[in-house]
Amino acid sequence: MKRIYRVMGFLVLIVVACAEATAQQESYLSWTAARAVDVGKSMRRQVRAGSSLGFRGLHTERAISYKLRATWLTPEVIRATARHLQLRMRLSNEQTMALVSEAEAAAQTVMMVEIDPQEGSGVIPLDWLAFLQPKSLKGGSLQGMKGTTNPSFKNLKALAGVRQRDYSYDVFWVAFPLVDDKGVPVFSDSMREAELVVRIYNKHGTVSWPIPDSIRQRARALSQQE
User: Fold this and answer.
1) Helices (H), the chain
2) Where do the domains of the chain lie?
3) CB distance 106 to 159 below 8 Å
4) For 61-120, how does the pLDDT look when each residue is reduced to its tens digit (9 = 90+)?
5) Closest by Cα among 158, 133, 136 to 147
6) Could you give the CA distance from residue 134 to residue 148 in angstroms, rounded to a whole number?
7) Nearest Cα residue to 84 out of 134, 31, 130
8) DSSP for 116-130, written as a single string
């Protein structure tokens, strides 16, 4: 009989733990509008690729430099965007959670990259590159995980961010793997910062973030699936 009670007690603990985990995951549904915006903006960075005093010579199709914005669409930012939409559009909790699910199913992790050329033709070349890597790789070495642009991500509302669109920038959604070909997480526990390196022609722009715990957890889960 005591053994039965022990088993029942263990099952109760599992149920309580699962309920607490679910409640924590859905806590964003009670965020205020101000908190949703703050969380959504927290992973946004801005930098310039190339110098504003640069020289392009005869290459008039190229810009002197490029203004660059990047938003890491982490699980928190995705939830903040979904909550922001919920409050604006009066969505149900179920509709809001569906926005989160479809966004997280799109890729292992996604960056929203905005680019604005300074002078030149104003055209962004198709062969620009983006790499996500540990910050310990210095000097724009492009040794990280190469990103893949996916225009269809613009249809996923929870990947749009909380900021109003600035139409002076072209917007790209770039997907990155969080585990390598062997199933090993890109960011180890000892790594503290990640950086995004964008190269357009011979110009580089780099932005960095502390690596969120949610990204580490997602990478571990993906690694276990390999």
Assistant:
1) 2-25, 33-41, 75-89, 93-106, 213-225
2) 31-225
3) yes
4) 567 788 999 999 999 999 999 999 999 999 999 999 999 999 999 999 999 999 998 765
5) 133
6) 18
7) 31
8) EEESTT-PPPTT-EE
